[in-house]
Amino acid sequence: MLRRVWIALAALMALARPAAAAPEPAAHDFTIRDYHFRSGEALPELKLHYYTLGQPRRDAAGQIVNAVLILHGTGGTGRQFLSPQFADVLFAPGGLLDPATHYIILPDGIGHGGSSKPSDGLHARFPHYDYADMVEAEHALVTQGLGVKRLRLLMGTSMGCMHAFMWAETWPDAAQALMPLACQPAEIAGRNRLWRKMAIDAITADPGYSGGDYTAQPAQGLRTAQDLLILVGGTPLPMQLAMPTREAVDAYLARELPRRLEGLDANDLAYALAASRTYDPSKDLEKITAPMTWVNSADDFINPPELGLTEPALKRLKTTRFVLIPTSKDTHGHGTHTWAALWKDELAALLKRSGG
């Protein structure tokens, strides 16, 4: 009887304990010497900062078999995936991407985070990188820097979603499974290009920008750019529920805008927005042969489903399952890509159908 009581108490205590959080990642740098950009510009050294969770596991031939590459969006960094809505769902013990069993790689793209970027000192003389440069550098990090010949999984959100399409076309055998979230495999045009151009122009037209050689951040240009980013990243229903009065909206903006402006650099943001200018994977979709689950959300301002870009692309993507998450009080517009609880079942299914 006493033993049963102790067992019951132990079970209750286990339930009461908070779930273990994902471990703190290790930070690293990878340097590419004499890096040449598609623009014709070059850097004697290009630094890619990145984080890792877990350890590589090798097969009998010595090849790493458990590497997972996750690519961030415009203005983000690899550390963004440590947010609770992502890491506590996927990286926690027993999660689909538990670092105990997976080797997780979280790079900062060129121009972002701790990687080489305009604000390091070159300002507007920094090479005008595009997505192709970013993807090439990511591939060099994975294959040359880390010795991974084939990823178990390649995921990407927003800009990282677009990078995933480019990876899959350029190196069809580089990943065993693909999960791009929140993008379209089409040229950045229409409203998507328009808001980016508006944000870039707001920064560069600010008199304080001084051709990129400012001594103080061009405040008005950055404010306007961030205003646009708040709008395009949001979604009407959750915003209406969270801010049902004029006072609530004004209080949100007064709190949120300074937070977003803190530590922001005008050149870094303008370059990051401009990097999408050459993106257009639509010509080579048939080259994508790995199992892929592509996820968008119905309330995404940046990639609205009514554009009709998805349907013709799917006819050419023979190994792809497309998922459109319907609008609800739990979705987050474009940012739905980082709320893993909304699509983790799709990731589980992808891992299963691509080899367990």
Report what the structure shows:
The protein is an alpha/beta fold and 356 residues long. The protein has 2 domains: 26-189 and 280-353, Alpha/Beta hydrolase fold, catalytic domain (Rossmann fold, 3-Layer(aba) Sandwich), CATH 3.40.50.1820; 191-274, Orthogonal Bundle (Rna Polymerase Sigma Factor, Chain: A). It is 36% helix and 15% strand. The protein is built from 11 helices and 8 strands. An 8-stranded mixed sheet has the order 1-2-4-3-5-6-7-8, with helices on both faces. Strand 1 and strand 2 (42-53) form a beta hairpin. Helix 5 packs antiparallel against helix 6. It is globular and about 60 Å long. The protein starts with a helix and ends with a helix. The relative contact order is 0.13.
The name of the CATH topology of the largest domain is: Rossmann fold
Overall tally of domains: 2
Report on the biggest sheet.
Answer: 8 strands, mixed
First and last CA, distance: 43 Å
Q: Which of globular, elongated, flat, extended, rod-shaped describes the shape?
A: globular
- Mean pLDDT across the residues is 93
Q: Calculate Rg over CA atoms.
A: 21 Å
CATH superfamily of the largest domain: Alpha/Beta hydrolase fold, catalytic domain
Q: Give the helices and strands as they follow along the chain.
A: HEEEHEHEHEHHHHHEHEH
Number of helices: 11
- Count every beta strand, where a strand is a DSSP E run of 2 or more residues: 8
Spatial order of the strands forming the largest sheet: 1-2-4-3-5-6-7-8
CATH architecture designation of the largest domain: 3-Layer(aba) Sandwich
Question: In percent terms, what proportion of residues is strand?
Answer: 15-25%
**Helix-strand makeup class:** alpha/beta
For the record, the CATH class of the largest domain is Alpha Beta
**Poorly predicted tracts of residues:** 1-19
